Amino acid sequence: MSDINILAIESSCDETAAAVVRNGRTVLSNVIYSQIDLHTLYGGVVPEIASRKHIEKVNVVIEQALKDAGMELNDVDAIAVTYGPGLVGALLVGVASAKAIAYAAKKPLVGVHHIEGHVSANFLEHPDLEPPFLCLIVSGGHTHLVVVKDYGEYEILGRTQDDAAGEAYDKVARAIGLGYPGGPKIDKVAKEGNPKAIVFPRAKVDDNPYDFSFSGLKSAVLNYLNQAEMKNEPYVQADVAASFQAAVVDVLVDKTIHAAKEYGFKTIALAGGVASNSALRAGMKEACDKRNINLIYPSPIYCTDNAAMIGAAGYYEYIKGTRSGLDLNAVPNLKLGER
Ligand code: KG4
Ligand code: ZN
Predict the structure, then answer these.
(1) How far is the CA of 5 from the centre of ligand 1 (A)?
(2) Closest CA to 310 of 80, 94, 147, 85
(3) Ligand 1: residues whose CB is within 6 Å?
(4) Is pTM beyond 0.85 here?
(5) Bridge partners for 270 per DSSP
(6) Ligand 1 centre from 140 Cα, in Å?
(7) pLDDT grade, residue 200 (50/70/90)?
(8) Could you report the per-residue pLDDT of 136-152, keeping only the tens digit for each?
(9) Most buried by CB count within 10 Å: which residue of 20, 50, 250, 279?
């Protein structure tokens, strides 16, 4: 079979990204323009600003991705683009560019689910990884525990009932004065703290053992900070960060391992921005090693938003025959497994 090169575009949140990926596994180029510095000024992503920056950068990153791959538009086999979920105005920029390029260059267009992209990031550096496997998806907007039954086929075992894991990191970081984006900052500060200093709740969810809930934990952290303030006692930022992180990691590890045992999976993959968290990686690794489970996760650059992961997911959709029309629209609340 001859090689299939996919030009992929991602603009669902605050990263404008383009990549060229060969056969769903080999990254020929991966260009990311991150808007994080801009949004940091406002303490979070401002959708209007995100859309405007995407418009400014989308063509630049696409041209750079082709150039880095040593290719012209004519050399690619298809255009893959994230069409949901995400911020509607942000998604529309990538979708409109992809449609224009597909039309002008007469290339097939493949709409890709952003979360399917995060899962597929694992294919980029693990050439032997094949479904089925268990995947814990932890990003700024999503927390899902899924069985990847086949390429593009998922069974959702559990999801968050309120905040996503990354969202909890970002909110707690803001409360302890660390700013946006909170995840990497808590990760770093927590290394100096004692994870046992404060016992924060490990949320149990009654109806489904694989569902998550992080809003109670967030409230517990806020209460702790308020009480410290009322008593005029300074709190130790690193201890709060480490203790909060320990509570998140415990729950993520417990539920994932429980599912692996129940369903008999010997491979667990992590995906999404929080998958680059050092405590989560270490905690999951320790639990997996004890049970002879193989743990894999993408490099940090493929954990947070990027287009290479969209190129990987796009490839498997492409070879299945998935094609999008030029009427492809952004779907801000697209569910996993839906098209
Ligand atoms: O996957 P992603 O780039 O965007 C979404 O699709 O949501 O994830 C971004 C999230 C943010 O909440 C960020 O704080 C979190 O991932 N994150 C981390 C780390 N790096 C990024 N959370 C914990 N530890 C990290 N090292
Ligand atoms: Zn994402």
Answers:
(1) 28
(2) 80
(3) 13, 118, 139-141, 166, 169-170, 181-184, 187, 272-274, 276-277, 304-305
(4) yes
(5) 136
(6) 5
(7) very high
(8) 999 999 999 999 999 99
(9) 20
Residue with structure tokens 């707690």? 172
Cα–Cα nearest to 241, from 284, 277, 276, 288: 277
Q: Which atom of ligand 1 is nearest to the CA of 167?
A: 12
DSSP class of 322: -
**Residue 206: which pLDDT band, with cuts at 50, 70 and 90?**
confident
List Cα–Cα distances, 59 to 13, 25, 33, 102, 248, in angstroms. 17, 24, 11, 14, 38
For the four alpha carbons of 58, 59, 61 and 66, in that order, the dihedral sign comes to: positive
Residue 87 carries which side chain, given as an amino acid letter?
A: L
Sign of CA dihedral 53, 58, 63, 68: positive
**Which atom number of ligand 1 is nearest to the Cα of residue 141?**
7
Q: Are 173 and 182 in contact (CB under 8 A)?
A: yes
Provide the pairing of β-strand 133-138 with 267-271: parallel
- Burial degree of 42 (CB within 10 A; 0-12, 13-18, 19+): exposed
SS (H, E, C) 111-162: EEEHHHHHHHHHHHHCCCCCCCEEEEEECCCCEEEEEEEECCEEEEEEEECC
Beta sheet of 15-22, edge-to-edge order: 26-34, 15-22, 5-10, 78-84, 109-113
CA nearest ligand 1 atom 21, residue: 273
d(CA 233, CA 73): 61
Q: Which residue has the tokens 């899902």?
A: 144
> 309 to each of 17, 29, 263, 322, how far by Cα in Å?
10, 11, 26, 17
pLDDT at site 292: 98
List, in order, residues 6 or more apart from 211 with CB less than 8 Å away: 158, 159, 160, 161, 205
Residues 151, 283: Cα–Cα separation, whole Å = 27
Span 245-271, pLDDT tens digits: 999 999 999 999 999 999 999 999 999
